[in-house]
Structure formats: structure tokens, C-alpha cells
Amino acid sequence: MVALENVPNQRRSAVSARADRGAPGHPWVLNRQHIVRFGIGGGPFAGNWSALREFVQMVEELGFDSYWRPDHPVFGPDAWMTLAAVAASTNRLRLGTTVSCVFHRHPLMLARIVADLDRISGGRAVLGLGAGNLEPEFRALGIAYPRLRERQAALVEALQILPPLLRGETVSFHGVHFQVDGVKLQPGTVQQPYVPVLVAGVGERITLRAVAEYADASNFIPSMVALVPAIERKYAMLREHCVAISRPYDSVLRTYQFVPLLLADTAAALAAKRDVVPPFLRAMDPQTKGGFIGTPEQAVERLLTLVGAGCQYFILSVLDLETLRLVAERVVPAVLAEVGSAVQRVQPGGPR
Q1: pLDDT tens-digit series, residues 113-156
Q2: Does 345 fall in a domain?
Q3: Can you list the pairs that 297-301 forms with residues at least 24 positions away whose Cβ atoms lie under 8 Å?
Q4: N or C: which end of the chain has fewer CB within 10 A?
């Protein structure tokens, strides 16, 4: 349900919009910003809920920080409905999408869904947003596939609507792509101080500026940017955008995602695991597009290289339980030991 109120349309500056939040960053970002953290994405792709429930409960038991679902309605189960079911089967994991295309749902509808997940999960929702880059998915949904600049502009518009809606504000916005007129979510979210927003993309002039102005986290994947000098350049641009609006650079969480991550100790075992990769991912070369296939030791080396480039938080989309165990038992401890962080085991309680 939404409430409609008559208020004048008002487009606020990024500085004033962020000032309304009070603190310069979300506790999820600030409370543990000096510790490399890990979230898990994916799991069984065949729509087997009992298998996914077992998977996410193991993710929580192993001490990971979060669980993420890809939001591609043409290629798999609905992300937000799945996360709501995951919320009922877990107690601590933060739950988010990587990522929701702003063209697939009107911002008001998306805000309603996110607020409901936040209430169902007891305040654990994270909203992942992107401009969309899969033209076949747009066509399948009957949506025109705009040029990149237009998709980026729509993302910026959505970022001027969604965060204030999720903070309980009454919002009016009249843009080129989206319009809302005096809308307030009722009931709203329960998370304090607000639902954090993660934005995927590496565009230096538009997307990274929008991250600095409106978001709490920036997400990269190898198909966007893979080489260390390029990653360092993107983070330097993000820092410049933060400085320009007097925002602390460290109030933006710098995340990096592999889709998929497949681990095994031998080449033969790795070759066999390729069979669990869904067709739409198998069409891509995981080593050069979105993912990583290798031994645990190779994964540690790659992750440490990314930490050196400035990455703080890794979202590892795994497809099998063995990879999940290898990440927990051999990859995470080795990375944390190398960067000087103590292994963090989560205590019972609320979301971090």
C-alpha cells in the first residue's frame, strides 16, 4: 500500500539529500570497514527450494555476512520472492540483489517490494541497483533497450526516488523516465537508519558520481573492470566524486563480485564442475567475463590482489556446496590472515 499526499515536486541536491540521513554512512559500511568481508550469492539455480534453504542456512552457519540473488526474471526464479523465503529461514544474513535493473520495475513498485522484504527479515534488506546491460532480457520483457547514456540517466533518476522512499519520506519527482507524485510508503521499512543501497557500474562521469551522491556501496564485476590499474582508476574517480560533495570516501563500501566462483583442488574436478553452471552463464568464459574457476590457493591470490587495489567486500556467487565449504575453510581464513584481520565469527543477534 502507498499513501498519496499533495506536496510540491522538489529535486534536492546530493549534499542536502545525504544530509537528511544524519550520519555520513550506513552502519553496515562503517562498523566493520577495516575488515575484509565476504557475502555469498547464487546457490542452486534449478528452483529447488529445499536445496536452496539448506544452502543459505549453511551460508549463515559458516559466518558469512550476506546472501545475494541475481535479479534476472527471464533466467531464473524471482529474486525478491526468493529473498523473502530466505529471510524466513535465516536470522542474521543481510539480503540483497545483484542487481535489480531500474527498467524492470517502476521505482515505487520496487520500493514497496524492498520495504516488505525489510519488514519480513527484521531489517536486513539491501537494495542492489543497476542500469541493466542484457539486451535479450529487455526484449523478452517487451522493453526497449536504450543506449548506455539513457540507461545511466534512468539509474540516476531511480536513485533520486528510491532512497528517500525507503527512508519514509513523502516523495515527488518528475523525471524523463520516472514520475511519482506525493508518495509515501505505508507501512515503511524497519531498518535503522535506512535500507542501504548498492549500485553496480563503473561509468566514471555518471554512475560513480551517482554512487557518491546517493548510494552506500559500489559493486564491480570482472566483466566491468578486471585489471588492477583500471580498478584503482575507478576508485580514484569515486574518491574525487566523494570529495566534491564533502562525503567521506570510506562511507562507500567497495564491493567486488564473481559470478560464478567454482573451486576444486584438481583440473579434472574443476572441469566436472562446469556442468553445474547454468546455460546463460556457461555461454560466457568465466575467467574473462564474470567469474573465477580455480583452486582455493588461486582464489586467495586473486582476492588479495583485489584487496590491494582497494576492494573491501567480496560477493562470491557459488553454485555447489563444496565450493562454499572451500571458501569458508581455506579461502576466507587465508585472505584475512594475509591482510592482518582476525577471522570474524558472527555472534547471535541482529544484522551487522
Answers
A1: 999 999 999 999 999 999 999 999 999 999 999 999 999 999 99
A2: no
A3: 297/330, 297/334, 299/261, 299/263, 299/327, 299/331, 300/330, 300/331, 300/334, 300/335, 300/338
A4: N
* Residue given cell 566524486 in the structure block: 241
Q: Is 350 a domain residue?
A: no
| 8 Å CB contact between 207 and 199 | yes
Q: Is residue 352 part of a domain?
A: no
Query: What's the domain range around 105?
Result: 2-338
Alpha helices (H) in 64-106, listed in sequence order = 79-89
CATH number for the domain that contains residue 7: 3.20.20.30
Residue 148 located in a structural domain: yes
Beta-bridge partner residues of 118:
none
Cβ atoms 40, 315 nearer than 8 A = yes
Q: Which residues contact 130 (CB under 8 A, 6 or more apart)?
A: 99, 100, 101, 102, 155, 199, 200, 201
**208 within 8 A of 230, measured Cβ to Cβ:** no
Total number of domains constituting the chain? 1
> Are the C-beta atoms of residues 200 and 219 closer than 8 Å to each other?
yes
The DSSP H or E segment spanning 273 is: helix 267-273
Predicted confidence (pLDDT) per residue in 308-317, tens digit: 999 999 999 9
